[in-house]
Amino acid sequence: MRKKAPGSYHHGDLRRSLIDAGRMLLAKNNSGGLSLREVAKVAGVSHTAPYRHFKDKAELLAAIAETGFHQLRADAERVAHTYRETPLQQYTHCAARYVRFAVENPETAHLMFGGGIDMRTAPPSLKQASWATFELLIEIIENGKQAGLYKAVDTMDLAVATWSGIHGLSLLIANGYLTQLAASDSQIDGLAQRVARLLLEGIRK
Amino acid sequence: MRKKAPGSYHHGDLRRSLIDAGRMLLAKNNSGGLSLREVAKVAGVSHTAPYRHFKDKAELLAAIAETGFHQLRADAERVAHTYRETPLQQYTHCAARYVRFAVENPETAHLMFGGGIDMRTAPPSLKQASWATFELLIEIIENGKQAGLYKAVDTMDLAVATWSGIHGLSLLIANGYLTQLAASDSQIDGLAQRVARLLLEGIRK
DNA sequence: TGGCCATGTTTACTCTGGCAACTCATTTTG
DNA sequence: CAAAATGAGTTGCCAGAGTAAACATGGCCA
Questions:
Q1: What is the distance, to the nearest Å, from the Cα of residue A154 to the centroid of all Cα atoms in its chain?
Q2: CATH superfamily of A64-201
Q3: Distance CA A26, CA B110 (A)
Q4: What pLDDT was estimated at residue B1?
Q5: Tell me: the pLDDT tens digits for A50-76?
Q6: Segment B65-83, tens digit of pLDDT
Q7: CA A178 / C1′ C11 distance in Å
Q8: Which of A119, A194, B34, B139 is deepest in the core (most CB within 10 A)?
Q9: CA triple A24-A73-A90, angle to 5 deg
C-alpha cells in the first residue's frame, strides 16, 4: 500500500494504491461499506484525487471487484494446474478453492456477486475478468468430459450447473446462512467436499 | 401503500407503510439503493418518523428482507402444495419458482442474499423467516426421500446441495452473469429446468 | 526554455443518516 | 372527568459522504 511521499506532488501509481486501500478498508470495516474519502486518506491524498482515476465511486468498486476476479482466477488456475492429470480431483479441488475464496474474502465476494454491480452494464474490463474466470471453469469441465468423466450434455449446461452449485454454497456460507453446519474451517471444507460430490453424482437414488 | 391522511397526526400503520414504500422504491431505483428520507416522503411522513419504528436504516432493510422471505416461502409453498402428490415435480417446480423470484425481484433478492445482512447477527425475526424458508426446502427433500426418490444421504446435505445450486443459479442470472444464456423469460425457465435436472441426476456419466 | 496537460488540491454544494428537543393525541389514572 | 404519562410524529441541526468546478503543480515535449 504505497502512500504518496509527503511533500511530493505526484503519487506515481495512485490508481493502484486506491484499489489496494479500498480492499484493505473493505476487509477492515467488515461489510460496513467504504467511503471514497477514507480510501483517499489511506492513500495519502486529497479526497477528490480519486476522481482523476475513477469516474465515480462505482467505478472504483468495479475495479476492486476486478482484482477479486483476477485473484479468484489465479487461485483456481494454480489448483487446476496442480491436478491437471486428474480431472476429477481438478474439479473438486477447484470447487473447494472457490468456496474458500468467498469465505476468506467475504467483502470482495459481496462486491463481485452481491448485486451491487450488474454485469450487463459493467465496465468492459470487469466483464472480461469475470468471463475469464468462468472460462477456466468451462475448461475444467471440458477436460473431464474428454476424459469420459461427465455426461454427454452441452458443456455450457454442465458448467453452469456446477458453477451455480459452488457459487451458491459459497455465498450461503459467506452470508452466514449455514452457520449451524459450517462454523469452522474444517467443517466448511467438509461441507464443500460433500456438496461437490453430490453435484457430481446427483441427489437421485 | 397507505399514506397518512393529510391533517391527521397519527398514521395508523406506519411501520407497514414504510416497508411497502421501501420495496417500491427499491424496485424503482434499480439497485441504486434507497434513502430513509425518500421512504419517509413516500409514506407521507417527516424524515425522522421512521425512527419510531426502526432503530436505524439497517433495521428497515432487514424488515424489507423479511417480507421477501415471507413472499418467497409463500410462493414456494403454493407450488409445493399444488404438486404435493408428485415429489419430483414438487422439487423441479419449486426450484423454478425460486429462480423466478430472484429474477422478478432482483433488488429484494439482493437485499436478502447480497451480503448486506449477515445472518449471524441479523434480527431474530429475520433469522426465523429465512430459516422457515429453508425448512420448506427440507420438507420437500424429505418428501422425495420417503418416496424413495433420493439417495440415502443425510437430508441436510441433500437440501444444502440443491439449495446451493438453485440459489447460485438465481443470483448468477439476477446479477447478469448469464445474459448470453438466459436473456428471455423462457430461456431462464429452460435453463432452470436443465440445471435442476442436472442437480438431480448429477453431471457424472 | 516555455507552454501544455495530466494529476492533485481547494472549495463549495447537496444529500443522507441520525440525534435532540419539541408538539400533539391518546390512554391511563387519581 | 381532569391531568399526567406515554407513544407517535415534527422541526432543526450536525457530521460525513459523493461530486462538480476552479485552481495549482510539475513533468514532458516543442
A1: 25
A2: Tetracycline Repressor, domain 2 (1.10.357.10)
A3: 19
A4: 47
A5: 999 999 999 999 999 999 999 999 999
A6: 999 999 999 999 999 999 9
A7: 49
A8: B34
A9: 130
